[in-house]
Amino acid sequence: MSRKLSNTSNSILVICTRRIGDVLLSLPAIKNLRNRYPQARIDLLVFSGTQEIPAQIAYINNIIEIDERPGFMQHLLLFTKIFRRYEIAISLLPGDRPVIYSFVAAPTRIGCLTANYKNRWKQKLLTRWVPYDDFNTHTLVMNSKITELLGIDRKIPIDLNFKFIGKSENSCRFFPEIATYAVLHISPRFAYKQWNLSSWQILARALYSMAGLQVVLTGGGAEDERNYAEELMQDMPKNVSNLVGGVSLSDLSRGLLGAAIYVGTDTAVTHLAAMLGTPTVALYGPTNPIKWGPWPKSFLDRGENSPWGLVGSGKIGNVHLIQGTNHCVPCMMEGCDRHQKSESKCLKELDPSRVVKAAMKMLAL
After folding, report:
1. For the whole prediction, is pTM greater than 0.70?
2. What is the distance between the alpha carbons of residues 2 and 96, in angstroms, rounded to a whole number?
């Protein structure tokens, strides 16, 4: 961990082979790298299917993709492509594969590791590393601690700098006029992060009757998500548009930029809305907010490990986080039955009046 690192670099590979939310939360660290190494080629290695947002980021040069469960030949092709092509490789994850990818890619490797005996072999693959904290440190802060190993002062810039910002296509054809609509992201990828149908309907009616907003429903394209949206639409105000499964993340990003307010559970889109500066109401149940709470765009980082505490609701900047009140919150488990398709009572029982009140406060009504 004491080997000296270079003060200059012409090529850097950042490795974040996990879900879309993790990739999104890697962007501030990459922005820090760009500020430190303005002339370097900075590439990002991600899982296929998570590349759409980083591909729109101006300070990333190239996206390299690999399947979540690659076979031997795909790994061979990846290793051939990245073998010692970089001066620095950065693993933002403590897993086996990200660390191995970094070892293949560059002579200088930094990252994070869970400090225990079984991971000692990975310590030998990294030039320097920091202990990985999966509980008391926000993911953005954890990533920042890794880049500090390169002598980069800790700061968390929320500057997504999309390539389309400022261009004529910034006005997305799927969404109404700017600031006249609310975006409700109703269907997270996993059922244990889902609110209940009747509560979404209550919220939509309140946004229409109390704030005069059109309501746009968004979500993924899986069959169960589309079916959920169709069921929801059976008792919605007439001004509600159902875009579930119908827009790309890039188009959704444009839509979020123009929204008067966004409401969603613990999903990548909720993180995206918060980082774009959209007024955001985030509904949290089993998830640890210290680690995974949405980072407010204008939050002034004074060295804290997270903007959020483990328990409690509140507003910081453009984000109002509402946490379930059950005694077990946050359990940090995958629902009450401990699997991704189970329900979380803390979310299912979350009172919609709390969400309506928070939304009206964000809208200054």
Report:
1. yes
2. 22
